[in-house]
Amino acid sequence: MSQATAVAEPPVVDIRFEQELADAIVGAWAEDTQKAYMIAPDKILAVLRHLRDVEGYDFLSNLTCVDYKGYGGKLRNDVSERLEVVYRLYSTRIGGGPISLHVRVPQDETVPSATAVFPGANLQEREVYDLFGVKFDGHPNLRRILLWDGFNGHPMRKDWQEAYYEEDVKPFRSRHPKGEYAFHEDKLPWAKNTTYPTGWDPDSWQQPVAYVPVSQAPHHENEPHLDTESIVVNLGPHHPSTHGVFRMLTRVEGETILALEPEMGYLHRNHEKIGERNTWLMNMPFTDRLDYLNSMSNNWSYALAVEKLAGIEVPERAEYLRVIMAEFGRIVNHAWSIGFILNDLGALQTPALYAIEEREMILDLFEAVSGARLMCNYMRFGGVVRDLPAGWHEQATYLANDRLPRALDELDRLLTENEILKARGRGVGYLSVEDLISLSVSGPMIRAGGLAYDIRKAEPYGIYDRFDFDIPTLPNSDIYDRYYIRLLEARESVRILQQALRDIPEGEILGGKGGYTLRAPEGEVYSRLEAPKGELGFYLVSDGKTTPWRYHVRSPSYINLNALGPMSVGYKIADAIVILGAIDIVLGEVDR
Amino acid sequence: MFGTGLLKGLGVTLKHAMDTFNDDREAVPDRYRGSLELGDNRRVIQQPIDQEGLLTIQYPEEKRLLPERFRYIPMLIWDSEKHEDRCTACGICAKVCPPQCIWIVRDSDENGKPVTRASEFYIDAAVCMSCSFCVEFCPFDAIKMNHDYELAVYDRYPQLVYDMEELTVPLEYYAALWPTQYDEEQTRRREEEEQKRRQAEEKARRVATKNAAAKEPTAAGPKRSAAELQKLARERAAQRKTQTADGDKSGDDAAAAKKARMEELKRKAQERARQRKLESGE
Amino acid sequence: MASLPPNFQQLKQEQLKPFLHDQIIVPDELQANVLITTVDKIYNWSRRSSMWPLLFGLACCAIEMIATAASRYDLARFGMEVMRPSPRQSDLMIVSGTVTKKMAPAIVRIYNQMAEPRYVLSMGACATGGGPFKEGYNVVSGIDKYIPVDVYVPGCPPMPEALIYGLLKMHEKVDRQSVTSVPWYRKDSSAFVPVPRLGPDIFDPRQVELIKDTTLKATTGASATAANGPAADAEGRARGPKTLSDKAKARMEEAKKRWRAKKGVPA
Questions:
Q1: What's the rounded Cα separation, in Å, for the pair C171 and A96?
Q2: Which of A209, A458, C48, C118 supports an S-S bond with C114, CB 3.0-4.6 Å?
Q3: Can you state the angle between helices B220-249 and B253-279, rounded to 10 degrees?
Q4: Cα(first)–Cα(last) distance of chain B, in Å?
Q5: Each residue of C202-213: pLDDT tens digit?
């Protein structure tokens, strides 16, 4: 199943688009899913439209690109195109597995933009353009997103090397016993991590001016005698309410937002480029630093993907431990996010401090079991790294059965019926759930819009099918519901925790072979789980070596930002702060 | 009625305030339950999980009791029983290190032949990500995670590039920080040694019987192998021991400083062990 | 004068005693300095007891910074609870997290906007030296490449205690300063740090000549590159020296010597 094989003929699956758009399919590519097709570049839009309208694949989950230049595997011997764009669609209505489409990018490096069918492709296509240089024809706003305009080259291409480049794969030879004691800084005369093209003259340099779409926002004429002019207000990257280094360009008329454009990349720390150099295992601590509020989910998601690829079994106890850690992590995350939504609403500090109290108690547990408060690095391929220390289970049981329910009730009493919260939250940031899905939004955001889509139920992973829990939904899709849904989800997490802590068996905690080198079989895999912020997926391509060929993170924070602009338009600028807060982003995951 | 929600919320905060206030008025506040007085206004604090609210740790005076598995920056173990570094410069830690922050240079003997000892060992604390992979995969239990987090400095270079000197700690220090794991490890090591010894004996006996069966024991060589080799090894160990002792005695400042540091660490370790003992209620 | 207590003079003397050092006989030529030492004490005490940090989070470390300010570690004990979002009102910049090239100009600009006396604490491995992401193409290997840093706190991320320890080190540093020797009351004290610019890669205006040396020389003649190794690779991008620079070699030698001296190993 994990072994990818290039099959000459498409597998016989009952899918109607095969008949209707037979000429679109140029081959099949069976990977980790049964439904994987090679699509001709000019037919991709028709296929996407058909899949969305006829077959119900309404959720474009992941769109990314792979550079196969210098690929060492056997599967692509006869392919000349180096770049390949990968689409992955799910159905929120019927649930279940994905359909995956591959498009080989032709010589001119242009493919049609999927934004016409799925507006949610917006940010992902911009990322592919930025990092790979693939141009998307028809994209409304194809600018660099993570790097700045004027940056030299497209860094995720395999032949692009940075200033501190040492070797293609780790471990670097210089570190090993005979290695020299050397700093990266010593490699370059200016002792900085920079390179410049030959012949470039810094004196005459002019940074290209980017055309940001807020400048074309409509001009409203309120009344004939009142001549108002809209202005651009810039929030960030250093702004107390942007949850990190994030920038919003807003065009406002008075206080009303006419257009809002997110700008990111201020924390783009090259997770994927470094990830392709790391060995499979070395990436594990790096995943901690994606969504640094709940490293356990990130660990798990990455471990799931590699286990799927390499076919590693996970022992029973480890499965339970993973569920326990992930659900504690979800409570940590939701507590934090509730606190800071309220902070953004002006309830400065008090709710946040109350929420952080419980968070600290859980972090103590994380620290006791894994050794670190934030960067747990707890999971390994095939299980978890260490068993519970003495006394941990009792403490966790007390927390789950006694303290956390009480604390959540208290937060509920403190906030839920608060009239100010209702006044500020009700009806603000509304976007219908259909729009949210077409914008590829996932997680609590769509559940606050009334759609009970949760990967733990829709495509269960781990042992979630054993637990008795509900998917809470709320109907209104506004700030208030986005706050409240997190409280409800934290309660469900407590329920899962109670069951998991009750049922956890004794036994092994680490399956597989262990050790620090892993050679995953050639193939590709996409695996996702329901992280507290939404669908967290890892897309991995292996060429059978000790390092991933492609390592891509489908991060919920980043893709949920698709909805920020549409949600904010028409509301006041003070509301935009809360709307951003209620998306619950973490910049480490947004920019990676 | 408008305002009931607000009042309810204010009630929650008022309750919190009153609880804290009442607790503070006690002679020994409830929140110090389970904590450990060290005198001098210093305390080690472990918040009981059933303690309401969250306890403020007044850091420089009060410290949190760190869990055994806490990890910060690695340290190298000096085996104070055998008087040698446990590190053999195999380089596995440098290999598995995700950000590649470890440099090792292997030592060589007077003939220039590499030996299983590191002459230089650097960890760049400005790169280290405290992931503990080096510890996980070290086959010699030579590198462990230190609990010392008071590392702030005024200069980055060279203070934050720890060399072997700064990284090395005596075994007792490790034993005090990681008691459970240390015990497990010692048991395992003893078992392994026992097994090795038994295997060697077995092999020697087999060789002996084989030799006896095959032909006359002409050469002393094979017969000598087990016992003699062990003796040789012992001699060499003793030599090394005197060498190191001499080195320590040689009296230059560096050695004295090292010794002082070792003493300091040992003292710390003892203090730590005492804390743990007190904490476990003995 | 009627409202004063009868023993006012005596009380006043008592109060002033600790500041006057009347037991110590101070030579005439040192009188002025002694007064300044006392001023220094008060001045430094007040500065370090209300050192307002800039509310400025970059990455993971910012979460630990918030945890430090929250109820468990309670930065208010050090007079630091007021995190000011405006650089104009803050004394201390805690660079908490990975500094990227895209963000570096903003950070330098914020630093320039802070009023003297200003301090920078680099929190965590990333801000100190690039951390685990050091090799990344968009990561600045240490904020000290652009602005002066006073205290470095290693750790990934530093736990709140470690941050507080760093802050205490900062207090120590403040305590050692004297109002007579600090630069910030001079006319041209608060020099602006040149803001780095974004080109094909980020560049520091202070290093323009050095950069031109490499990028422009490579086009004029290959001979010029001999000292620096190959200046451009196959893709035409300027590369640094492949062999180690003299400075690096010297640094290596120095470190080795230090180690040998400590070990007592002859060179």
A1: 58
A2: C118
A3: 100
A4: 58
A5: 888 888 877 787
pLDDT at C34: 60
Residue C125 has pLDDT above 70, yes or no: yes
The pLDDT tens digits for A330-377 are 999 999 999 888 888 887 778 888 888 888 889 989 999 998 888 889
Kindly determine whether residue A285 and residue B98, on different chains, have CB atoms separated by under 8 Å: yes
Contact C150, C111 (CB under 8 A): no
Which ipTM was obtained for this model?
A: 0.87
User: Which of these CATH numbers, 3.30.70.3270, 1.10.1760.20, 3.40.1190.20, 3.40.50.300, describes B74-177?
Assistant: 3.30.70.3270
C58-65 average pLDDT score: 88
Query: Chain C closest CA to A288's CA: distance in Å?
Result: 10
Convert the pLDDT of each residue in A46-74 to its tens digit: 888 888 888 888 889 999 999 988 887 77
In this predicted structure, the answer to whether residue C71 has a pLDDT above a threshold of 60 is yes
Distances (CA, A) of A112 to A105, A134, A153: 10, 10, 22
Is residue A102 situated within a structural domain?
yes
Tokens of C153: 């706190």
Confirm whether A43 is domain-assigned.
yes
pLDDT for residue A188: 73
- pTM to 2 decimals? 0.84
Burial class (CB in 10 A: 0-12, 13-18, 19+), C260: middle
The amino acid occupying position A404 is L
Convert the pLDDT of each residue in A550-574 to its tens digit. Answer: 999 999 999 999 999 889 888 988 8
Of residues C134, C155, C261, nearest to B130 (C-beta): C155
Region of residue A341 (phi > 0: left; psi between -120 and 50: alpha; otherwise: beta): alpha
Neighbours of B278 (CB within 10 A): 13
User: What is the token pair recorded at A103?
Assistant: 């498009």
Q: How far is the alpha carbon of C44 from chain B, nearest alpha carbon, in Å? A: 18
Closest partner CB to A377 (pick from B103, B106, B131)? B131
Local confidence band at A5 (pLDDT 50, 70, 90 cut-offs): very low
Which amino acid is residue A44, in one-letter code? I
Q: Contact A473/A492 with Cβ under 8 angstroms?
A: no
Cβ <8 Å between B119 and C125:
no
Among A112-116, B29-33, B79-83, which is the least confidently predicted range?
A: B29-33
Number of domains, chain A:
1
Check CB contact under 8 Å for B156 and C258.
no
A321 within domain boundaries: no
Query: Which tens digit of pLDDT belongs to each residue from B38-95?
Result: 777 777 877 777 777 777 888 888 888 888 889 898 988 888 888 888 888 888 888 8
Tokens at A580, concatenated: 């951003």
Chain B residue numbers with beta carbons less than 8 Å from the beta carbon of C133 are: 99
Q: How far is CA A307 from CA A519, A525, A534, A545, in A?
A: 12, 10, 21, 15
Which residues of B lie inside 8 Å of C (Cβ-Cβ)?
54-60, 63-64, 72-73, 98-99, 119-120, 124-130, 149-156, 158-161, 163-165, 247, 250, 252, 254-255, 257-258
CA distance A482 to A475: 10
Domain boundaries, chain B: 12-65, 74-177
C152:B152 CB<8 A: yes
Contacts of C204 in chain A (CB under 8 A): 190, 192
Predicted confidence at residue C188, as pLDDT, reads 67
What is the spatial distance between Cα C104 and Cα C140, in angstroms, rounded to a whole number?
Answer: 8
Alpha helices in A374-443 (DSSP H): 392-398, 404-415, 419-425, 433-438
Of A371, A386, A414, which is closest to B70 when you measure between CB atoms? A371
Average pLDDT value for residue range A203-209: 82
**Domain assignment present for A284:** no
Q: What is the CATH number of the domain that holds A82?
A: 3.30.460.80
Which residues in chain C are contacts of B60 at CB distance < 8 A? 164-165, 168
